[in-house]
Amino acid sequence: MSDPFAQRAKAVQQTLLVMEQNAADGELFALGYMIPQIALVQEMAEYDPAEVDADDFDATYWQWLESTFAQDNMSDADQEQIAQLWQTAAARADL
């Protein structure tokens, strides 16, 4: 049985890793923050693979990031940069 949640997580992770390889110095913190969060989301998510799609991963991942911002006292500028990089990664992972 396919697992669209896990497949999307893998695609996003690969996209972020490629982005990290080509990133400007100012993007490395944000990308380095985002990449390991994927494994944590997968570990913590409870779902039935038959009842999810790729959009469910995207929504869960973004909600997870938003919750970590507060816990990590993330600055507004860092949050905005992560949001922009997330939008780019999500779009590129669709290709």
UniProtKB/TrEMBL annotation:
Record-linked Pfam families: YfcL
InterPro entries according to UniProt: UPF_YfcL
UniProt superkingdom: Bacteria
UniProt protein name: YfcL family protein
Species: Salinicola socius
